[in-house]
Amino acid sequence: MAPQRQLFSFCIFSVLSFSTITSGYGGTLPDNKPSTQRFAPMYSYKLGKSVPQEAGPERFSLHTLGSTLQSKRMVTNPFHPIHNVSGARPSTPAPISVDKFGAKGIDHTDDTKAFQKAWLEACSSNGAVVLLVPPHRSYFVKQFTFSGAQCKSHITMQIHGTIMAFEDPKTYHFPNKSKQQYWLTFERVQNLVVEGPGTINGNGEKWWQSSCKQNNITRTLVPNCNNDAPTAVTFKTCNNLTVHNLNFEKAQQKHVSFENCTDVKASRLRINTSEASPNTDGIHVTETKNIDISMSRISTGDDCISIMGGSQNVYVANIACGPGHGISIGSLGRGGSEDHVSDVTVFGSRLTGTMYGVRIKTWPGGSGYATNITFQMIQMDNVTNPIIIDQNYCDTATKVINGECKPPPLQKNTAVKVHNVMYQSINGTVSKDGQAIVFNCSSVPGGACEKIVLDDVRLEKGGAAVCSNVKPTYSRVDLPLNRCPNQ
């Protein structure tokens, strides 16, 4: 009878365990009714429709949203074996430290060659390998490309210390000044992970002082200026890429750029640079498909996130932006070029004290389109222009006379078409002398703003809506003064 009793006890224990796991997991109970005990979504989200599950000020809490998203993502299959049943520990190769190759991490010692050697060893290894930048040290590194063209391994680069650029622009060598310049580049590396919690510091103050871009505080231009400032960190043609839990500071120009990449996850990034720093975009996305940017804080002197031509399936969620120029699509169509951006969602984010909120900007004379774009659940706090579409964009280095760029665009009768844009659940306050909505759309036939929808938009304080060549659709819109005509 003893074996039977043991079998009976085991069966009862298994049934109770299964019920407990299923209930906690939020899956389907035996009566086929969904469980709501844990991991209840804060919003029922579908493209173009969002229904709050809870009311109150926590609706736009980044912490709450981040916790909810993280809780959902951390749920694992309860039946997946996560322990090594045999008791044997899997063999893990020791990390490859840059110190092994002579890196000192001492003030202004050039550690570039040590990083090169460490990368080559990691790249030539078989299987998974960890490249380590040890903590509590600052490693000064010159321009360098981490090339993955010959890599055999899946590399995880763990940055625990600080990687520093030399502050003197004379230490840089740019063989082709007509092209975009770079400091650190990861090129053609597949299945790469770059993670912190360390810091990448571009030491960019001297670059800012000589930039041809206007200083964002003094609004002045520098004589004998230059446009050579490099992007701090660039990922080029990388597939299945993860960038996680890193700090970026004082970039020479843009902080992080994703160029021609596919399947990217960037999360928990902290970007912190002076509001006065010119052209220091936080995260720059161009020619990149299937990218997820989430749970990050960005303070900078230009766009917190800029999404450029050739980008598709871009998802941005739980971003705290400010100061800066907001979250932008574009600029597109510069110099008469053809650009395409599609399927972009910006969700559950907060912008504080920024010049712009969510913006689409295209140059006159360009072509192509920006389409299927959703801005949803965005909190604006003291933002100058929370919602803006500008199809007559000219940057600060270009003269604007009577509303036109000088020199004039190459093709004056074309425009980058902007259509299928949804603004939903945009709430908050407009700064003094600001304008809640600006739709500066093109008068070019077939190139203007079309199918622009505003639903549940409530912006307090600030000024009116300013619109041209657009007929938006409204639902539950509350603005301080007026709205654009939709007839």
What does this structure look like?
The chain is mostly beta strands. It has a domain of 308 residues: Single-stranded right-handed beta-helix, Pectin lyase-like (Pectate Lyase C-like). Helices cover 11% and strands 42% of the residues. It is built from four helices and 31 strands. The protein has a 16-stranded parallel beta sheet that branches. An eleven-stranded parallel beta sheet has the order 6-9-12-14-16-18-20-22-24-28-30. A two-stranded antiparallel ribbon has the order 1-2. The radius of gyration is 25 Å and the shape is elongated. About 18% of the residues have low confidence.
CATH class of the domain at 156-181 and 197-478: Mainly Beta
Using only C-alpha atoms, the radius of gyration works out to 25 Å
How large is the count of helical segments? Answer: 4
Percent of residues in helices comes to 10-25%
Low-pLDDT stretches: 5-90
CATH homologous superfamily heading of the domain at 156-181 and 197-478: Single-stranded right-handed beta-helix, Pectin lyase-like
First-last Cα distance: 84 Å
Shape: elongated
Write the CATH fold name of the domain at 156-181 and 197-478.
Pectate Lyase C-like
Q: Largest sheet at a glance?
A: 16 strands, parallel
Question: Number of DSSP strands?
Answer: 31
The portion of residues forming beta strands comes to 35-45%
Q: What would you say the CATH architecture of the domain at 156-181 and 197-478 is?
A: 3 Solenoid
Mean pLDDT: 81
User: Which structural class do the helices and strands define?
Assistant: mainly beta
GO molecular function: polygalacturonase activity
Family: Belongs to the glycosyl hydrolase 28 family.
InterPro entries: Glyco_hydro_28 (IPR000743), PbH1 (IPR006626), Pectin_lyas_fold (IPR012334), Pectin_lyase_fold/virulence (IPR011050)
Enzyme class: hydrolase
